[in-house]
């Protein structure tokens, strides 16, 4: 799978042996779910000759911040597989970083001339806990400059297994989806993290309830499990194919009208 959403001819280009674009994984999920732990786990699982770009999306509290921040000490700054680390900022809208002149767009476009010399092979983008992943998906699937060099292979929503049901059930105004629901709706994979913190006798019930709720929003989503450190290998994550045959509702990641129709359908079915 090259791009999980119907984003036009650029994003839906079939992956072939000649496709040498940089493989991209977009990681979303609520605050505290374990997104950064997954980023570190994926980096650690890459082959020794990999060259990975990691972009962390932040909500800026003030202007004039340097997007080329130092690599956090727990992100293995000396790991040769970490070829470039950056933080990209928006100032409250959640979309500015993905606009044509936004931080993320500039950052990715700026990497393109360096692909051959730096040997970039992978890209991991982590959004903030409250981010809507749709602008990121649009950028990675539609922008012809970005699509020419980067291939969106996976959109992962990381969830705290003990909190996700409450987060999905958070009340919001009619014809709206709460943040957690938007993230699940637009992901290929739902990674249930911190499974080890659930009582053993209650895990099966939680899994069943989460799967039911997730598939109401996204019929083809793949559910995976992880413990506190969100241990997951890149290869294993890429092999977790999304079952498109189970899609129940129109995907709205690149179609705002379709997204609103999807919300209305959910509300009519009693799932708001």
TrEMBL record:
Q: Which Pfam families match?
A: cobW
What is the species of this protein? Hanusia phi
Looking at the record, the residues that make up the CobW/HypB/UreG nucleotide-binding domain are 25-210
Instruction: List residues traversing the bilayer.
Output: none
Compartments in which it is found: Plastid, Chloroplast
* Cellular component, GO annotation: chloroplast
Name this polypeptide is given: CobW/HypB/UreG nucleotide-binding domain-containing protein
Gene3D superfamilies tied to this protein: P-loop containing nucleotide triphosphate hydrolases
């Amino acid at each position: 799978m090259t791009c999980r959403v119907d984003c036009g001819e650029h994003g839906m280009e079939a992956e072939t042996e000649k496709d040498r674009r940089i493989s991209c994984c977009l990681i979303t999920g609520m605050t505290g779910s374990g997104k950064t732990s997954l980023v570190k786990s994926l980096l650690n699982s890459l082959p020794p000759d990999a060259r990975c770009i990691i972009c962390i999306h932040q909500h800026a509290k003030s202007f004039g911040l340097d997007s080329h921040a130092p690599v956090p000490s727990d992100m293995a700054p000396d790991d040769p597989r970490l070829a470039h680390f950056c933080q990209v900022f928006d100032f409250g809208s959640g979309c500015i970083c993905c606009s044509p002149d936004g931080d993320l767009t500039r950052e990715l476009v700026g990497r393109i001339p360096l692909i051959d010399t730096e040997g970039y092979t992978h890209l991991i983008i982590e959004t903030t806990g409250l981010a809507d992943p749709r602008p990121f998906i649009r950028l990675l699937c539609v922008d012809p400059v970005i699509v020419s060099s980067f291939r969106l292979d996976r959109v992962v929503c990381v969830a705290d297994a003990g909190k996700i049901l409450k987060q999905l059930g958070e009340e919001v105004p009619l014809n709206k989806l709460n943040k957690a629901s938007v993230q699940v709706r637009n992901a290929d994979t739902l990674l249930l993290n911190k499974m080890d913190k659930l009582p053993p006798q209650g895990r099966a019930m939680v899994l069943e309830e989460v799967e039911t709720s997730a598939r109401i929003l996204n019929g083809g989503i793949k559910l995976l499990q992880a413990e506190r450190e969100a241990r997951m290998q890149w290869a294993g994550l890429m092999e977790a194919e999304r079952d498109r045959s189970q899609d129940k509702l129109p995907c709205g990641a690149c179609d705002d009208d379709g997204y609103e129709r999807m919300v209305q359908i959910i509300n009519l079915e009693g799932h708001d």
